Structure formats: structure tokens, C-alpha cells
Amino acid sequence: MGVQPTRAAISDPQRTPDTWAAAPFEAPLADELRRLTARLNDTQRLWLSGYLAGLAAPDLPVPATAVGAAPAAPAAQAPIVILFGSQSGNSEQLAGRLAEALTARGLSCTLLDMMDCRKHHLQEARRLLVVVSTHGEGIPPDRALPLHELLHSRKAPSLGQLEYAVLALGDSSYEHYCETGRQFDTRLRELGATALHPRVDCDVDFETPAHEWIEAVAGRLAQSAQGGSAVAHAVEPGRPTASISNAHTRKNPFPAAVLTNQRLTARGSTKDVRHLELSLEGSSIRYEPGDALGIVPRNRASDVDHLLALLPFDAAAPLTDDADGSPLREALLERFDIGPLTPGLLERYAGATGNRALADLLRPERREDLRRYLHGRHLLDLVSEVPPARLGAADFAALLRPLAPRLYSIASSQRATPDEAHLTVSVVTYESLGRRREGVVSGTLAGLGAGERDSAPVYLHRNPNFRLPADPETAIVMIGPGTGVAPFRGFLAERKIYVQQRLRECGAELWSWLEEGAHLYVCGDAAQMAHDVHAALLDVVRRHGGHRKEDAEAYLLGLQRERRYQRDVY
After folding, report:
1. How many domains are there within the chain?
2. Residues 133 and 170 occupy one common structural domain
3. Which of 21, 229, 302, 354 has CA atoms 20 to 30 A from the CA of 216?
4. What confidence tens digit (pLDDT) does each residue in 124-146 have?
5. Is residue 60 in some structural domain?
6. Residue 94 domain boundaries
7. Per residue in 243-266, pLDDT tens?
8. Would you give the DSSP letter of residue 38?
9. Is residue 429 domain-shared with residue 457, that is, in the same domain?
10. Contact 212, 199 (CB under 8 A)
11. Is the confidence at residue 44, as pLDDT, over 80?
12. Calpha distance 160→189 (Å, rounded)
């Protein structure tokens, strides 16, 4: 690879139409490049930018420490392999941050998707860093399954030479929390590997513990490598670690105005499924089909007030252990999950309150009783049954899980609707323990009205493992019952072929027909389609007829005068 570009040099080729209008490519090649770059994620664009920069300046001197051109690592630094197994992209993102942290400390590493990991990678590595999520109830991510099966088979290699560390991602609302990470940790140890750092299990609010694990592991490896030469070789070509920052994140969401909120199911249906169209105008959000939109939730005020009525705390008093000094009511509205109970929350609550009945329910032999107790119960029910009399407000808040964003597959394409994101949302409602329950986010979205008054706080969540094939001619099979159809609506919009594209692709044949006396008819939308078709015809006449712009206009005008180019547009 050549010169690695700086982040400031990376631009989005899809951002404005003028970018391609001024590009030094003929129309068919420009269309092909536009389709390709639209399917690349930020990391792939960054790598490609550096690769092309290197091709454009092959004679520029490149320092020996440039990416992809580093000398072999000295013996003092054992080879480091970072493995990630990701379902929705979080593990891959954290693995990239880990690689950046190692590189910043002068350490060489290889970043590898578990799907691409082979037996020899494990046998040749001396340091293995694993970042893996758990999908659903203890299931490995799809791309981690082959490696998981290899390690648990009779073909698993002996790994006595290996030191390793595991960062596990999961959701404690599931019974088998971080199970995949636990299994990797256990199995690597069984195969003879030695843990160089304790495993860390991360819940849905993974940012802080993941950052601490990355810093601790990178620091330990850098310390052990002292005495060897520092190298700046980062990651093998094809897996750069740099990423392009997005101004809108889960901590700084974009207020997307609601353009449309339409119920899709019939009025008499027990299900309420919504089609929402959100405006992204003025944001930095650029998504690809397969990505998701994160919605930052906020608890309903009525639920918070009902909970506060059962608590022996002053709702307006600031939480003493809170860095921002937020009042309890505000914290319960915006930061803490007050919804369904989880085993972890029940365990913490039982310990803090000293309630023996809850503690007894948590014994391993009472697993089925625990499952029945948790089903349909919310924090409100728990507090009603077992008041936190021994706790202060800050102690109580410390027991709660953070309020996690909800992810919804984007059901649109920015090729068709550049400043919009569409969602297909099933509104969650049910009855339990005599109370009507409603999904925190889905219920809120259902109640939003179209117009400037209502908006939803959103950010982009990339999903690089759910992408259309790069070749638009490749056949695809899409299976998505119910609201699972959402991303495929985006797929279809992305692949939609416009007539002007076909005119340019078949330009030579079209020009031949016109020269042989063919008549041309256009019928339909005057505002957009007819204008775009006329522009495509001009391109065909200029390219295949060898005419200048003025002559091409005159050629089409001549066809109109001869009544060979007729339009019925409205």
C-alpha cells in the first residue's frame, strides 16, 4: 500500500450531485464508480483512498515505517492477532479501536474477522486478543460460527504458545449473558493458552468498560515489548483501523423531524405496525442499505412519576454520586432502564436490600422459578413488592442498567431519498400483572406527529455484515417475515434502475436507432423524469455522435421539429 490518507482528506463521493458532475469520467464509468462507492463502508473508503493515492504517486519516497511497509517485528515483540466476531458491528468497531491503541504504542498487529481466521493463524500467533459479541440467547455471531466450531472440535490445535485476552459483549437481559465470550475464554484456556488479562463482560452500555479493557491490554503489551524497537506497522492491507468520525452519535444524536407516521396494519388489527419517514436534512448521517438507525430512548414521564411515588426519595434531589449532579427524576427519565427486570438487576437488588426471598429465588436449582418470576415484571413491580427502604437515592440508581438505544433497520436508500431515513416499527404493547405495558421507543415513535413539532433523536449504527453484493447484477434472495422486510425495502430502493441509466448504458445502440430514423416518445413526470431523460439523451448524442453540447441540443431540437422526439409530460 502507498500513503495512508489523513481523515480530513476523506470525502463522501455520494454527498452532492455536483461531485460526480465535475468528475473526469465518462458517464457509464461515473455511474459504475458511484454504485461501487455507495456500497463501501467508511473503513473501506479510507483504505481505497490510500491505495489510489499510492498508485497516483508511485515515485514518492515512503518511510520504512509507513503502513504496509514496516520491517519485520523484532523478536522482543511477539506477533499480535486481533480477532473479532460481530453481528451488528460493535465488536468490529471496538477491535479497530484496539488496533489503533496498539499502533499508537508502536506495536504491530493483524486485525482479522473470525470468518477469515484459519487454524494456522492461531498456531502462528503468540498474542491473541478476542473481541466477540453474543447473539440472542448465547449464540455466536454468524461470522464467528466456523471458528467457534473449530475450537470446540477434535481438530482444535494445541495453543500452549499463546497468550490471550477476551472482551465479551452481550445483553444482561438474556439468561446466557456474554456466553460466546465466556466460551472462547474457557476453550482457549483448555487448549493450553494463558490469559494475559482477565476477561471483561460488557453490557449494552459497553463504551466505558470496553475502553478500560483496551487501555489495560494495550498498556500491558506495550510494557512487555519494551526493549524491542518500536514499529509503526499497523494492520495488514485491507484492514485499516482508522475510521471516519460521525458528528452524530448515541451521546450526540440528531433530532430527526418526522415527515410521515403511517399505520400499515388495519384499524381492527391487534398489531400496530408503523411506517415512519424521518428527515436527515442538516445532519452528517450517510447510511448504506443494511445499516440501522439508533433511537435514543426516554422513559415516559407517567411511568417515572409512578415509580417515584413508590420510592422514599426526593425526586428533585441531585444524585450525590452522579458526575453531573442530575436530579433523580431527570436521571430516571433519560438515563436508567426502568422497564423489564433482568437476572442481574434482581441479584443486585436482592443483595442491596437483603431480601431473603429474592436471594433464594436466585439459587441455581430454582432457575425455572426465576424465569417465571421475571416474565412480565418491571422495576415498578419489584419496588412495589420489595421497597428499597435501606437504600439512598444514589445507591438505588447505581443498581439500575443504563437506558440502551434501540436499533431499527433502515427501510430506505439514500440514492432514492437522499435526506430521509425510513423505518418499519412494530409497536410493542401487552398486559402483565394487571398493567398495560408499552415499548419505550416503539410506543414513543407511534405517538409522534408529522411536522416540525415532533422529532426523534437518532444516530447511525453501521452494520458491515449485512450488505448488498458489490455487483448489482448478482441475484439475491431476501427472507424477512413481518417487520423483517424493513432492510429489504432499502435493498430494492438501492437497486432501482432509472431509465436514464439504461439510456446511457445502451447509448451506442440508441444512437444507431436515431440515425436510422427511429421515433422517440417520453411520457410521465415533467419535474424530474423528463428532465433527467433529456439530459441522458444529450449525453448519448454528445458521446456517440461526437457533437459538442450546443450541437447536441440542436440535434434533439431537430428531432422535435421532425416530430420524431415527442413528449407527453405532466
Report:
1. 5
2. yes
3. 229
4. 999 999 999 998 788 898 889 99
5. no
6. 80-224
7. 334 578 888 999 999 999 999 998
8. H
9. yes
10. no
11. no
12. 9
